Amino acid sequence: MSEIADVAVIGGGPGGYVAAIRCAQLGLSTVCIDAWKNARGRASLGGTCLNVGCIPSKALLESSEQYFQVKHKISAHGIQVENATVDVPAMIARKDKIVTTFTTGIASLFKKNKVKSMLGTGRLLKRTDKDDTWRVEVNDGEHKQTIQARYVIIATGSVPRQLPMIDIDNEKILDNVGALDLPEAPAHLGVIGAGVIGLEMGSVWRRLGSEVTVLEAMPDFLTAADDQIAKEAKKIFSKEPGLAIHTGIEIESIKTSKKSVSVQYRDADGNGQKLEVDKLIVAIGRVPNTADLGADESDLDLDERGFIAVDEYCQTNLTNVYAVGDVVRGPMLAHKASEEGVAVAEAIAAREKGHQLKSTEPVNFDTIPWVIYTAPEIAWVGKTEQALKKAGVAYKVGQFPFIANGRARAMNATSGFIKVIADADTDRILGIHMLGPHVSELISEAVMAMEFAASSEDIASIVHAHPSLSEVLHEASLDTNKRALHI
């Protein structure tokens, strides 16, 4: 055996690298195995999130929003800018520099915390009855070696779901990787899928000048979000930045030529339609990355959708083998993966080293925030109104619009509102839903309130700074008891 460790982590994304660092902090010798390489063929930690997901997409969203503001909105502030142009390669270079800074930063954190980093794919091997350790085969494409560890944490993440009728070439047909590296804004861009990735990537290129058409199979828009939020968001996005969103569609065929991509589909009324675009982004969700993990050989249980089966503490059916993040049940969110990674690391340390840690609790899925970084942003935590209706839970609602908020007016960002849902009898907060400026930041107050079982009255009783966007949450909380002051 070339490497022996207390813990082997397979995957270096937000779940894996955080788990590895926390294990090391708790005195466990830790190896993190990750196959991601950058354009120069060097190891690039951070997984999909950091390399081709959360971070680079937000960099482009910010750049495109700055351009859109200068081009279309900054004149409202009395600022005149003539002949503003966009340099897409410079935007891409800025995005790449941010990614490099953070991936090398994780490598530095590994060095600081004495985490051993290994480049390659990890495959779990079958354990013999006589052995109390696990073996993981590491394959870097040229060499194979086997490491030995008492504990294994699988954090291999997810990969884009494929359309069976077409292959992704990242030239004409793009996934999230190709969508982040276009050298110029295509004249007409098609997007299949109106989820987080589809909306964010569609927004980037629409702001930079592309005509964008979004095709969504679901009959309704953003079904995961609160209905009222989703309807208002669709109305805003259709006007500005001007996404053409079609729901309830059925793709029949996709064909490429040298110049374009042709999509044949049926609309919500069953009528045949044709969409001709220069580029097509396929963003129909993600699936767990469990291929070549060695599940059959090691007897690791997978469910019918390919997710690793775990209990509420992320323990698999195999002794001392855990799994976290996109590869297990629950929302496919980077922050969820990181929290699971920390929880598993602390559980292992408590067992292995006898650390006096607080009792490990499972990650509370009811208080995990969701964010879509469009403009305006969408964020929520807890139950939607439609879910509560279906469950027969009695509730009350308060809401307040950003247009009545002084800070939002000053920012010229008045679209959207905040909605607070509380139990009709106890006033305990059941869900908070936001559409508006910087709600990705405002949602943290909502998460904390729900984590500590706050009531709407608790938020209503807290003094919020004036003028600030947070006052919208304050007023919405007041409104649950019909006490809003400024509307």
Automatic annotation (TrEMBL):
InterPro entries to which the protein is assigned, alphabetical: Class-I_Pyr_Nuc-Dis_Oxidored, FAD/NAD-bd_sf, FAD/NAD-binding_dom, FAD/NAD-linked_Rdtase_dimer_sf, Lipoamide_DH, Pyr_nuc-diS_OxRdtase, Pyr_nucl-diS_OxRdtase_dimer, Pyr_OxRdtase_I_AS
Cofactor note: Binds 1 FAD per subunit.
Catalytic activity: N(6)-[(R)-dihydrolipoyl]-L-lysyl-[protein] + NAD(+) = N(6)-[(R)-lipoyl]-L-lysyl-[protein] + NADH + H(+)
Disulfide pairings: 49-54
Regions that span the bilayer: none
Cellular component annotations (GO), alphabetically ordered: cytoplasm
Record PROSITE patterns: PYRIDINE_REDOX_1
Domain spans labelled Pyridine nucleotide-disulphide oxidoreductase dimerisation: 368-476
GO MF term (any one): flavin adenine dinucleotide binding
UniProt keyword Glycosyltransferase, yes or no: no
GO biological process, one term: 2-oxoglutarate metabolic process
Compartments (UniProt record): Cytoplasm
Residues bound to NAD(+): 193-200, 216, 285
Active-site residue list: 466
Gene3D superfamilies tied to this protein: 3.30.390.30, FAD/NAD(P)-binding domain
Requisite cofactors: FAD
Protein family per UniProt: Belongs to the class-I pyridine nucleotide-disulfide oxidoreductase family.
Miscellaneous section: The active site is a redox-active disulfide bond.
Name of protein: Dihydrolipoyl dehydrogenase
Source organism per UniProt: Nitrosomonas marina
